[in-house]
Amino acid sequence: MSEDIFTGLDIGSHAIRVAVGKTIPSTAGKNQIHIIGAVEVPSSGINKGTITGIEDAVSSVSKALEQAERLTGLPLASSWVGISGSHIISQESRGVVGVSRSDGEIRDEDVERAIEAARTVATPTNYEILHVIPKMFIVDGQRGIKDPVGMNGIRLEVDALIIQGLSSQIKNLTKCVYRTGLDIEDLVYSILATTEAVVSSRQKELGVCVLNIGASTTSLALYEEGEVLHTAVLPIGGVHVTSDIAIGLRTSLDVAEQVKLRYATCRPDDVNKKEEFDLQELGANESEAVGRRFVADITEARVQEIFELVDRELRKVERSGMLPAGVILTGGTAKLAGILETAKESLRLPVSLGTAIGISSVIERAHDPAMSTAIGLVLWGQHIRSTNEGGKFSNVFAKFKGVDKLGDGLKKMWKSLKP
After folding, report:
1. Looking at residue 407, what is its pLDDT?
2. Which structural domains are found in the chain, ordered by start?
3. Which residues share a beta bridge with 24?
4. What is the pLDDT of residues 36-82, one digit of tens each?
5. Closest CA to 113 of 145, 137, 129, 91
């Protein structure tokens, strides 16, 4: 039974989210993921995607796992765990190998050797490689090849994107998860997992940017021609909107959070200038009338800043305003009123709200944009496991085979951390 159950654990600055899915036969003949559990609990001991207090973080993760087990009625033994934070960096690399067979036919082993060669890039001190993502293969100088297996050639090259994380943060995260008694199937860069939940293969081909706006960070992944073109983590998110409201209204963060959830919008022009609300109704000690237009002005300024930073990242790879499939917003802050229209104006691109596609569920929370990363981790696990069972080197997930394991040394380190 456990072979058909997949657990995704998204450890965020604002909340810990757990999604549990199982495979069911679909009408198309392929297995489909059915989400049987989706849990969200407030997190503590985590800031900007990194562990700042291990005891608090372990307690938060344990609480989320207990709720998920109670909801599904199943013991959760292992999980695919998302990792994010501004410490994660990406860089380009190229691997070059000679084709091993005398008749020049390229086999799976040659592709794996080329990817391994790309791994030998000089990593910064104290960094570990999380993923080696093949973007394009080159056979005897012919560029743009997606899958070279079965082709003939002498020289095989691969252009790859190397995603690395700070060793200390990786160890802290794995230690936190292992102390709850949960085993780790693999660590996955969160924004890549999010993409699997909210983006179709056609959108990836055309060119799309996935934007996960969380509490403390905003992660983005840019896809074109089906491959990852660029990734980044920006140290700004929804909590900064809350802080701005707290400063502007001279009130507490708790009251400011309630103001943001109930009255904030990114579109001041849509708000009547005379519209007001009382802070005391939201938990403030004293009665104070606040204009909703004022709150909207504060919210708009901070959200526009987020999109300006995103546009700067798009300009780095010369894709500003040039993505046919546009931008897909996910994450808790993506539910802010008026944010889609503000994004369209700031980024000059079509923008839509990203919810999980290609899954089935009767749980309403499964269709929440904030759950997209946890569900993406479930889908990631299902793809990896089905690829390994199939033994084919035919799709993007197969390319992660043997690459996505963070190296034998780190695996041993994980095991040594288990209680």
Report:
1. 45
2. 89-165 (3.30.1490.110), 201-356 (3.30.420.40)
3. 32
4. 999 999 999 998 888 999 999 999 999 999 999 999 999 999 999 99
5. 137
